[in-house]
Amino acid sequence: MIADLSHIPLAERIRPKSLEEIIGQEHLVGSGKPLRRLVETGKLFSIVFWGPPGSGKTTLARLLSHETRAHFDEYSAVTAKKGDVLGVVKEASARLKAGMGQTVLFVDEIHRFSKAQQDAFLPYVEDGTIILFGATTENPSFEIISPLLSRCRVFTLNPLSKENLKAIIQKGALELKVDLGEEAEEFLMSFANGDARQALNLLESTFNLYQRVTAENLKEALQSKFLRFDKKGEEHYDTISAFIKSMRASQTDAALYYLARMVEAGEDPLFIARRMVIFASEDVGLAQPTALVVANGVFRACEVIGYPECAINLAHGVSYLCKAKKDRSSYDALRKAQEDVKKYGNLAIPLRVRNAPTQLMKDLGYGKGYQKYDQQSYLPDEIKDHQYFYEPGA
After folding, report:
1. What are 38-85's pLDDT values in tens digits?
2. 84 and 206 assigned to the same domain
3. 391 within a domain of the structure (yes/no)
4. pTM of the prediction?
């Protein structure tokens, strides 16, 4: 008799069972790539998986443990207590002494662990009692204590491409035995925005409600109270998205409303303030350079003061950023320059702008012809006519 798996969420039912089944993240799991090599050698080490929601962090953690035959304990930093971690450590130590192999402690959303919680299991990562796998959507440099981070390798996961999402959606449709039209596929890919779990949840919910998956039914399902999303995760990312877009549009009331929602939900004030620091350079930029000073001031105030009073500092900064003029010229210029770096690699730097600390280098022409305020391009010859920065309003 075939077991009924309909009670198991679709995303879980089609979760990859081997590295070969993983869609996307070829830079990590492809032939000769680091996680593929880890499995081939069987030598585990502590890892932080950093990437956007639905990109495969949990899947990779589980697969690496399974394929290296390590015991796997999984916790979420949102609900796990210090005692839970110490319990895993005790069992892991006994397992090692009995010759039963290594233990992987996987902590989802590790950025939500406090410094004290991270300090608690640092000694056991250091002495090899446990192998730590952490998953985070936040920059580990900011959210994970330095001693712990220095003992982990950080692997960055990319957002899933449109082609990746299409393959995953088609796999989900095959599992549900439902036909998908091109319009429905396009809707799901657009809605997911790189997050496979979002796409699969909406696909499954629509199928459960209507037994047919069309673009129109997908839109209807989005409005349904029966939609089965990870509401904590979805609300977290949707709210910060609405917050940033409101500031970008200079809609102060909307930005303050979404700020209030995050504050009332207990969102980490440094998470909010960090987004404001980024926004000050990315969106306000040269139009009002003091925005970066204000945003940094807000971040520092949140560090020193904390809740509840630092909510006032956040509101001050949000109002300022909303009212500031906007200019993305520096941000856009950086992205264009990065495109050239990726396209051309490390092109030869013109000799006249190279450093010449030795006589040999001077004899070879390093620094020769350099003059202050020279109008001749300092870019490599292959791209000397490329322009990245455009004056605002030009």
Report:
1. 999 999 999 999 998 889 999 999 999 999 999 999 988 877 777 888
2. no
3. no
4. 0.64
